[in-house]
Design a protein that fits this description.
alpha/beta; Rossmann fold; UDP-galactose 4-epimerase, domain 1; 42% helix; globular
Length: 351
């Protein structure tokens, strides 16, 4: 009998990779998405799984639609990956971020408690919880110090998950994932912003890249690796919380250097620092210690930093080259005003 999984936020980077992973394991996969005037299914199409996922419209702020999603999917496992996940935007939309990245977790847990307490629940937590903590590496025992509305909302989700586990005996877990990137990362995130800009500069479509704090350091891994860890967390005999990371920290400047080097360019000739891209509160360094996941889950990151950077740049170069050849393919650039400006200068957007 097929296992059944419900993924909130299935159209996002993690949701799409997780859907593919579970389909390969013969799950019946259901995924929630937001109804928008411009549907955002490009990642599912990019991974060639769009027709294999059972899509359910739902809003994290609406308990009735979440109830309907659980009623339809009858899941054995729920992976709560949906959120307002861009840290910078959380300063501009703190109330909305608190709702969809925080309180929504309680809505789902309460529905599990009432409808079927046997459902296993995975909460997508984040290294941003550590914020201003400057231990050499952060593990499950390091105290949290959030420094953004996004991190504060995720802190609520983390603790409400533990509370429902302890109070009601639910199989409720947290995966404290450090930064994980891929060719299908959103263009608003700095890693994809860099890889996309490198591709455009290399092909002569653009000249400059503006960034904020390039000294910030993060523990970057490949999202495709981290999906397996999510699944492993729910396959354990008892629910628990796990840090998932590479154990290495690299600066944005190092990412820049590797990305431009890949196409034979010197990043210093093409970037400028813009204070608009600095956060009101900066998180200077994050580096995870996933010894617990190594030991209990048998999991470790496979794709090294340099390979990840090159993977992302190569994918964006290939996309822009395909676009210049007039090919049609699943892509997100058309949804961003800055990219539309470049597209319209060379070809009509609707060609």
């Amino acid at each position: 009998m097929h296992k059944r999984a419900l993924i909130t936020g299935v159209t996002g980077q993690d949701g799409a990779y997780l859907a593919r992973f579970l389909l390969d394991k013969d799950y019946k996969v259901f995924g929630t998405y937001r109804r928008l005037s411009s549907p955002n299914f490009w990642r599912l199409q990019y991974l060639d799984i769009f027709d294999k996922v059972n899509l359910i419209p739902a809003e994290l702020s609406d308990s009735s639609s979440l109830f309907e999603a659980i009623r339809i999917s009858k899941p054995d496992e729920i992976y709560n990956l949906a959120a307002q996940s861009f840290v910078g935007a959380s300063f501009e939309q703190p109330i909305n971020t608190a709702d969809v990245s925080g309180i929504a977790s309680a809505r789902i847990l309460e529905l599990i408690r009432q409808l079927n307490p046997k459902i296993k629940f995975y909460q997508a937590s984040t290294s941003e919880l550590y914020g201003g903590v400057y231990d050499h590496r952060q593990d499950e025992n390091v105290a949290f110090h959030p420094k953004s509305p996004y991190a504060a909302a995720k802190l609520y989700s983390f603790w409400i998950t533990k509370i429902y586990r302890d109070a009601y005996g639910l199989f409720a877990t947290n995966g404290i994932l450090f930064n994980h990137e891929s060719p299908i990362r959103g263009l608003e995130f700095v890693t994809r912003k860099i890889s996309n800009a490198v591709a455009k500069i290399y092909l002569g479509l653009d000249k400059r890249l503006s960034l904020g704090n390039i000294q910030a350091m993060r523990d970057w891994g490949f999202a495709g690796d981290y999906i397996e860890a999510m699944w492993l967390v729910l396959q354990q005999k008892a629910p628990d919380d796990f840090v998932i990371s590479t154990g290495e920290s690299h600066s944005v400047e190092e990412f820049l250097d590797s990305a431009f080097n890949f196409v034979g360019l010197d990043y210093k000739k093409y970037i400028s620092i813009d204070k608009r891209y600095f956060r009101p509160l900066e998180v200077n360094k994050l580096c995870g210690d996933c010894s617990k996941a190594n030991k209990i889950l048998g999991w470790s990151a496979k794709v090294p930093f340099k390979e990840l950077v090159e993977m992302m740049v190569r994918a964006d170069v290939n996309r822009w080259e395909a676009w210049l050849r007039g090919e049609q393919f699943p892509w997100d650039a058309i949804n961003y005003p800055n990219e539309r400006g470049i597209l319209s200068r060379y070809l009509r957007v609707d060609d």
